[in-house]
Amino acid sequence: MRPKKFLLMAIPLTILGLLAASCAQAVSPATPKPPAPAATEAPPAASTEKPAGPTPTSKPAAEQPRYGGVLTLGTSADVPSLDPIREASATLFNIFPCYNGLLQYDPLDNEKIVPDLAERWERSGDGMAYTFYLRRDVKWHDGKPFTSTDAAFSVDNQRKVNVRKKDLLNAISGAETAGEYAVKIALRYPSASIPAWLAVGNMAMAPKHVYEAKGDMKNEVVGTGPFKLKSYSLGVSLELSKNREYFVSGRPYLDGITAYIIRDRGTLLAAFRTGRIKKPVPSIFVTPGEAKAIEKTVPQASVQPFKSLRAAAFFMKTTQKPWDDVRVRRAAHLATDRPAALRAIGEGEGLLAASMITGQWAIPQEELLRQPGFTQPKDADITEAKRLLAEAGLAGGFETRILARSGYGPALKAAEFMTDQLSKIGIRATLDTQEAGIFLDRRERGAYETAVTHGGIDITDPDSAAPYFVRGNTWFVTDEKIWDLFDKQGRTADPVERKRLVLEMQYRVLEIAPYVLMLWFNNYMPLWPEVRNYRAGVGQHNNSKYQDVWLAK
Predict the structure, then answer these.
(1) What distance in Å separates the CA atoms of residue 129 and residue 185, rounded to the nearest whole number?
(2) Taking phi first (over 0 means left), then psi (-120 to 50 degrees means alpha), and beta for anything else, what does residue 101 get?
(3) Lowest CB count within 10 Å: 113, 324, 402, 493, which one?
(4) How far is Cα 284 from Cα 527, in angstroms, rounded to an integer?
(5) What's the confidence (pLDDT) of residue 15?
(6) Does residue 141 contact residue 222 with C-beta atoms inside 8 Å?
(7) CA 138, CA 120: separation in Å to the nearest integer?
(8) Beta strands 427-434 and 227-233: pairing type?
């Protein structure tokens, strides 16, 4: 019996209805004003600090998990480094099955935090520390015991040396042992999102003794996870074998995992259609159009909706002329037709967006449609955008270059879309397309005038947007008010007040336009029917250990 297929429906039907209503009455492009949030708008409470174990699998009575078999995955690139602490590349998916975190998102209910290497945890009364109590039966792949020394070392170094985690873990001031099997994490300020961050799949615990002996782990894998590294052939494949001393009784079911490295996206999807790979890694989710094509050409496959938390965004270097002028940035914001972006980039699906905040924390879709830059028709927005450029001394427009990443269709579509949108107000943009390595290097160094990304966040908590809001961020958001609001919301325990601050922060983004979000993508995860016990997670870095996955044949 194969898994039931998910219907591929265009999620934003409600949005399209709202768009139709909004077209009846254009709204003047004044400065955006936030409505006062009702007291009933509080988001769900933060995850519990003593959660239950993973959700039991729901399956037919006659079908029981089977042992054996090798799961074949498709990935798009080699891992630049195998170091689980220092390496920031998403290609670490290939070795995630070899590691555990202190906590994890339940692989079968990926909105819920459950234990992993920590059995339980507690928060101090003043909110300034967390203590995690560790399992006592865990061994590294080299046979040495996992202890609080490893946990403290891993947390401290994740926040110190990983360029993508420094902002996200900014609330942490340090980690120290609290006995052989407990670790205490001290905070700079109260933060309710620490468990959520420590549960993200790339927050791996690593062996301190290996770093002390060798200085890094660029070329080897020593984890506690359900699988061990068997072999790695650059440009070909990475093979993992079953960890027969894994601390979870009866797991894993699989004998191993092989990740084939297939750089060309079309070739990778062809390998899925032929069954050579049974699913892509989470970073290779498919678009709505690709999902529909898979359902048509591989009718036996299952296609799961996937909350990838990816967005198409246009960034302007706000420290460089003419983008240092808020009037020029506002003009770009007003010129961008977001409903058209849903059609052109999102293939008719997706969500409108104000900033890198999503889920229950985002400005409601119906409210966005009343904001300048989102209203329909676009006539008033375009007129105001041209007026702002003229006021800035750029009535004749100007030329700019858009840094874009090659190799991924939606990102290139977004870049081409922005060249068209900017042309409507006299801004003549040309694409500066670079392969992934060069693109990422230049983006990190700020070596661009403008850039289009297919970026995003890892979890829906507002703190996940830290790289786009904190002081000193690499996206050149340099507004003191935004910095202050982001800092305050992260320290606020009351959910109603926190949401008020998060909404105010988003309206400030619309006001000063340090970047333009075109849409949040809808994505899908395809898999062959024999792959059991897998649910597409939330965010790209979760549900990649495969300890509970089994093959029906």
Answers:
(1) 6
(2) beta
(3) 493
(4) 12
(5) 52
(6) yes
(7) 15
(8) unpaired
Interaxial angle between packed helices 495-512 and 480-491, expressed in degrees from 0 to 180 and rounded to the nearest 10: 160
Peptide bond into 97 cis (omega under 30): no
Q: What is the pLDDT of residue 344?
A: 94
Decide if 332 contacts 516 (C-beta within 8 A): yes
Residue 100 lies in a domain: no
Residue 307's pLDDT band, with cuts at 50, 70 and 90, is: confident
> Strand 450-456's sheet: what is its strand order?
427-434, 398-405, 450-456, 310-316, 515-520
For residue 89, pLDDT beyond 90: no
Over residues 25-57, the pLDDT tens digits come to 444 445 565 554 443 333 333 333 333 334 444
* Number of Cβ within a 10 Å radius of residue 359: 19
- pLDDT given for residue 163 in this prediction: 65
Q: How far is CA 344 from CA 25, 160, 352, 384, 518, in A?
A: 24, 40, 13, 24, 10
3-state secondary structure 278-315: CEECHHHCECHHHHHHHHHHCCCCEEEEEECCEEEEEE
d(CA 175, CA 152): 5
Is 460 contained in some domain? Answer: yes
End-to-end Cα, the chain, rounded Å: 11
Q: How many CB atoms lie within 10 A of CB 72?
A: 21
Question: Do 413 and 341 meet the contact criterion of CB atoms below 8 Å apart?
Answer: no
DSSP state of 116: S
Kindly provide the b/e burial profile for residues 368-379, where b requires at least 16 CB atoms within 10 angstroms of the residue's own CB: bbbbbbbbbebe
Q: How far apart are CA 496 and CA 119, in angstroms?
A: 31
| The total number of structural domains that make up the chain | 1
Phi, psi of 41 (to 5 degrees): -85, 10
Global pTM reads 0.81
For residue 505, give the CATH number of its domain.
Answer: 3.10.105.10
- Is residue 510 situated within a structural domain? yes
What does the pLDDT read at residue 173? 94
Q: Is the pLDDT of residue 18 over 90?
A: no
Structural domain containing residue 313: 309-520
C-alpha 159: how far from its chain's center?
18
Structure tokens given for 14: 């409600």
- Please give the backbone phi and psi of residue 69, each rounded to the nearest 5 degrees, phi first: 90, 160
Mean pLDDT of 140-155: 98
- Residue 166 — very low, low, confident or very high, per pLDDT cuts 50/70/90? confident
User: pLDDT band for position 264 (50/70/90)?
Assistant: confident
Q: Which helix (H) or strand (E) holds 509?
A: helix 495-512
381: helix, strand or coil: helix
Compute the distance between CA of residue 163 and CA of residue 109 in angstroms, rounded to an integer: 29
Residue 64 tokens, joined: 């029981």
Measuring CA to CA, which residue among 297, 268, 114 is closest to residue 201? 114
pLDDT value at residue 104: 95
- 436 domain-assigned: yes
What is the Cα–Cα distance from 382 to 410, expressed in whole angstroms? 25
